[in-house]
């Protein structure tokens, strides 16, 4: 029944604690009890508040996922409509790029050594004023033009 702990048994430690509590003034004992109750109450309130926050977070997360799914579905639908409209317009400006790419693929059968840069140049828009890009691509354009005019020799 009696277990040894640091050279003294538990009954002696319990007796010492009881003696210490009995030798404490009543005001300190009362304060300690009030403090213990107050801390228990604070712990209970914090657990309750934490549970409420978790519930609220789960609800907000579900709502967020629903909104994201709705946005995704709308985007998919608008992309489908845009794709259909894109392929129904045979001579739109954007289609020109697709037509150039298709011509590039169709001309892939006519591959001759030294014509690689000419085929790349077919896909590039070398007119700087008609370029719709916001970035400065003049250096890349000049490199491609120079490679088209004087291809690398292996």
UniProtKB/TrEMBL annotation:
GO terms for cellular component: clathrin coat of coated pit; clathrin coat of trans-Golgi network vesicle; postsynaptic endocytic zone cytoplasmic component; synaptic vesicle membrane. Signal peptide: none annotated. Keywords: Coated pit, Cytoplasmic vesicle, Membrane. It is a peripheral membrane protein. It is found in: Cytoplasmic vesicle membrane; Membrane, Coated pit. One of its GO terms (molecular function) is clathrin heavy chain binding. Transmembrane segments: none annotated. GO terms for biological process: clathrin-dependent endocytosis; intracellular protein transport. Belongs to the clathrin light chain family. Clathrin is the major protein of the polyhedral coat of coated pits and vesicles. This is Clathrin light chain. It comes from Nestor notabilis.
């Amino acid at each position: 029944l009696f277990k040894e702990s640091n050279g003294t048994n538990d009954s002696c430690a319990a007796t010492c604690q009881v003696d210490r509590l009995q030798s404490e003034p009543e005001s300190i004992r009362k304060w300690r009890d009030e403090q213990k109750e107050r801390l228990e109450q604070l712990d209970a309130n914090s657990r309750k508040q934490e549970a409420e926050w978790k519930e609220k977070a789960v609800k907000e997360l579900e709502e967020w996922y629903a909104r994201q799914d709705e946005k995704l579905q709308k985007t998919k639908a608008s992309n489908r409509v845009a794709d259909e409209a894109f392929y129904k317009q045979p001579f739109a400006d954007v289609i020109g790029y697709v037509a150039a790419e298709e011509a590039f693929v169709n001309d892939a059968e006519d591959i001759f050594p030294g014509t690689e840069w000419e085929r790349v140049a077919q896909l590039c828009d070398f007119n700087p004023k008609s370029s719709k890009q916001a970035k400065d691509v003049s250096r890349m354009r000049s490199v491609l033009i120079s490679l088209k005019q004087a291809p690398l020799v292996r």
